[in-house]
Design brief:
Blueprint lengths: L1 H10 L5 H36 L7 H13 L6 H8 L2 H15 L7 H45 L4 H28 L3 H7 L1 H18 L5 H4 L2 H28 L2 H35 L6 H21 L1
Helix pairs in contact: 1-11, 1-12, 2-6, 3-5, 5-6, 6-12, 7-9, 9-11, 9-12, 11-12
């Protein structure tokens, strides 16, 4: 089972570019909205501020240099955190106010008006960022389900009837387990630790039971599928695949950086999770296939057998 599980993982890495591609498409669509909208909002903000302070003596080139210096002073080693700070209304308000005041003492009355322009621009940018995140999530989720469909078709294909049956079985088993966990927690608080330690065993047991009900019921004895040996091997197989994918993710981060590494490595982890959820079904399908497979006889063997029978008959006739 371990060998089969690893084979399933490595074979299905051929679908690596499916989740990466759909995520990239979602991000590109989001960026096509985020970048022009944000630039337009910032441009309108600057034009509004220039109009507000047009009656004062302000050296705008010096203000621009001050703003660039403030942006560069952020900790860009952590780009996500720096972007959060830069896109916050408080930071922009305080930075712009300081930059303008540094080169003009006449801006005190215009503080509230400048703040309104900044808040309007920040609101637009945040909306654009939210749209970018939504499209990225759509790309990520679409990639997951498309990859799952391709992997399932490759290692554990099933009919629509079995799909409906599996959905009902999965919902029933999940509900029963949730009720059991809540009941255990209600009567014994430390059961959280107990259920956590047994989570891998429960997952393996449930996966094998579900796989048997879908693919092996009526074809093989349940004891041949649902036993301690298979549970242990399934757990080991899933753990090896999971930690292998995590190792690949961390290697990608170490070679590049946090953002690029996650973008490169997340597909390895996603495919690993998909394969882990299908390993039990793959095992049962192969087991049933091997049990029901009958040895085949080639044409040459049939002809040779017929020739031997004819020779035996001729010998018998001569002897008579």
């Amino acid at each position: 089972m371990i060998k089969s599980g690893l084979k399933n993982y490595f074979v299905n890495l051929k679908y690596y570019f499916t989740p990466v591609g759909t995520l990239a498409i979602g991000m590109i669509i989001g960026l096509s909205i985020l970048i022009p909208t944000s630039l337009s909002a910032l441009s309108q903000m600057l034009n509004g501020i220039i109009e507000i302070v047009s009656d004062t003596q302000v050296d705008f080139s010096s203000v621009k240099d001050c703003l660039i210096e403030s942006i560069m002073s952020l900790e860009w080693i952590d780009p996500i955190e720096s972007l959060k700070i830069m896109l916050s209304a408080d930071w922009l308000n305080s930075t712009l106010t300081e930059c303008f005041r540094a080169f003009s003492v006449e801006l005190q009355p215009y503080g509230d008006a400048i703040a309104i322009e900044v808040n309007t621009a920040i609101s637009t940018v945040k909306t654009s960022v939210a749209i970018f995140v939504v499209f990225s999530i759509i790309g990520l989720v679409s990639g997951y389900f498309l990859t799952r469909f391709l992997v399932r078709r490759n290692i554990a294909k099933r009919s629509l009837r079995k799909f409906i049956f599996a959905t009902l079985i999965d919902a029933l088993i999940t509900t029963v387990l949730q009720i059991l966990c809540v009941w255990l927690y209600a009567i014994w608080k430390p059961s959280v630790i107990f259920t956590t330690l047994l989570s891998l065993a429960l997952f393996a047991l449930v996966s094998l039971l579900e796989a048997y009900l879908i693919h092996g019921r009526g074809m093989v004895d349940i004891k041949q599928i649902l036993n301690a040996k298979n549970c242990v091997y399934l757990i080991l197989s899933d753990l090896i695949i999971f930690y292998l994918s995590i190792a690949i993710l961390f290697i990608a981060i170490a070679i590049t950086n946090a953002i690029a590494g996650i973008f490169i490595g997340f597909a390895f982890v996603e495919i690993a999770f998909i394969v882990i959820t299908l390993n039990a079904e793959s095992y049962v399908l192969k087991y049933v296939q091997n049990i029901n497979e009958e040895p085949t006889i080639s044409v040459e063997e049939v002809e040779s057998k017929e020739e031997d029978e004819n020779n035996a008959e001729n010998k018998t006739e001569k002897n008579e």
